[in-house]
Amino acid sequence: MSEAVAISQEHGISVFQVDDQGAETLNIAAVARIFRSDLRKIAAESGAVLVRGLGPLTVDDFSKAAEHLLDVVVRDNGEHEPANDTGDVQTPVPYDAGRKLLWHNENSFNHRWPLLLLFSAELPAADGGQTPLADARRMLEVLDPGLVRRFRDRGVAYLRTYGSGVGRSWQSVFHTESRSEAEARCRREGIGFQWGTDGTLRTRAVRPAVVEHPLTGQLSWFAQAQHWHPSCLDDETREAVLSVYAPDELPRDCRYGDGSVIEGAVMEEILHAYQSIERTFDWVKGDVLIVDNVASAHARNPYTPPRRLLVAMGDEYEFTGPTAAAVRKAGS
C-alpha cells in the first residue's frame, strides 16, 4: 500500500487516512480507483471504512468515486431524492433533524438491496449529525438467542400504506403511473398488495431478519423493523399517528412474518442491543464513508441544520425466498 495512506482506528471505526502529500496528488475518484480492492476488503471485514484527508469534494467527484468503487451503481432507488441528473448520487431520506434516525440496513425491507453504501458530508452539521454504525454480526451475539431464533424462523412482515399522506407515493417508489406495472413488480418481488377504494395501496412483504453475507458467508442481523414498528416512534409522533390512523391502516407497520404482533418489549430489546454496540465519529467535510450494508447497520444522530449528506449505493443482491437466509446477486 502507498506510503501516502495509512490505516488506523477511530472510536472502533477503520480509517483510511490520506496524508498531506497524498492529498496534493490524489482526489477521491483516484483513491477509489487505485485502492478499490483494499477499501472493499476493509469494508467487508470491519463493516465500514472512513476515507479521510482529501478535503472538500463535489457531487461529480463523489459520483466518479462511486463508479470506480462499485461494480454496478444503483440509480434512483425510489426511496431517496436524486442529487444529480443521472440519479447515481442521492440525498438521505428526509427526517426530523431534532430526532435520531434509528439503525437500519438499507432497503432490507425490499426484495433487492445494495451491498455497498457510500456517504459523504458535503456540508457537515454545525452540531450533531453523526452517522453511527452498529456491527450487524455482533447483533446476533448481544441479542437473546431465543429472540434471534424467533425472527430467523418467522422473518419480518413489512406493512405499508401508500397514499396515506405520509411518505413517498407508490408512483415514485415503483417508478410508474400504471397500477398494472406496480402490481407486476409486486408479484415479482413477493409483495402482497391491495388497492383501496380511495386510491391507497397497501402492501405486505415478508423478508428475512437474519442473512448470510453473500461474500463472506457470515451471519448478520439484517432488518429494519425499528423503522416500521409503532413502539419505536417517539411519544409525540406515535400519539399523533394513532390519533389519525386506525391500527390496521398505519402508513408503516410490521409484524412477525406469520402475522403475529411483534411485542413492544422485543423492539425495546433490539434498540438496546443496537445502542450497546454503536460506534460513531464526527464528520469532516470531504469524508467518504464506505459501509458494507450486510455487515453493518447505520443511523443518523440529531443535528442543528444546515447539513447535506451525499449517498451512493450499488452491487445489488436479492433474497432467494421470503424468509431464506441465503442471498444471490441480482441477475447472476
Can you describe this structure?
- With about 325 residues, the protein is of the alpha+beta class.
- It is about 30% helix and about 30% strand.
- Helix 2 (about 30-35) packs parallel to helix 4.
- This is Protein AmbC.
Name its key features.
single chain, 332 residues, alpha+beta, Double-stranded beta-helix, 2 domains, 4-stranded antiparallel sheet, 11 helices, globular
Strand content: 25-35%
- Examine the coordinates and then state which fold CATH places here, giving the name of the CATH topology of the largest domain: Double-stranded beta-helix
- Please write the CATH class name of the largest domain: Alpha Beta
Write down the Rg: 20 Å
Helix content: 25-40%
Domain TauD/TfdA-like: 21-312
GO molecular function: oxidoreductase activity
Keywords: Antibiotic biosynthesis, Iron, Oxidoreductase
InterPro entries: AlphaKG_dependent_hydroxylases, TauD-like_sf, TauD/TfdA-like
